[in-house]
Amino acid sequence: MVGGLIALALPIVYVFGPSYSPAVIPLQLLSVTALLSVAREIFMIILQGTEKVDTNQDASLLELTRSNLTMPRLVELAASCAYMLASSVILYLLKTWETPDSSIVTVLSLINLLMSISLLLVIWKRSKRVYKYVIPWWDLARYATATAVTVE
Question: Count H helices, E strands: the chain?
């Protein structure tokens, strides 16, 4: 779906008129960001589902804070604060330099994408501690071969 949105961003934007053509790149960047956000939420659910500190009746507040129930959300909150601060500073600088609005939106979309990538990597590394991810290459090759044979 993201691939289709990236490929068809120009025709989609032209539905609103040719004056919206500078919105193509931000639309493409934000569609990738949305995909990364979905992947990040999957890793968050894995982290929260494997945590056992909430079943411990004697768990301290510090243990709960450091657990996978709250720590990923705190990291996400800190990243959001950093994003807001960076966006505000960059927005101020770009407006001071009289940058066109379309370029400002593209820069802010790029910052959002970079923040989303960094958050995804942090949450993924943390989830690798509790869950082993295995890509079934052999099964994927078999399915791809079977699909290629049935298509012909």
Answer: 7, 0
pLDDT of residue 25: 93
Above 80 in pLDDT, residue 64?
no
Overall number of domains in the chain: 1
H-only helix segments in 51-136 = 61-66, 71-96, 101-128
Task: Spell out the long-range contacts of 86-95 with Cβ–Cβ below 8 A and sequence spacing 24 or more.
Answer: 86/111, 87/111
Q: What is the span of the domain harbouring residue 72?
A: 2-151
**Residue 69 vs residues 13, 49, 130, 144: alpha-carbon distances, Å:** 40, 8, 13, 38
The pLDDT of residue 29 is: 94
The two tokens of residue 22 are 């500078």
Return all residues near 122 (Cβ < 8 A) that are at least 6 apart. Answer: 75, 79
Say how many C-beta atoms besides its own lie within 10 A of residue 35's C-beta: 17
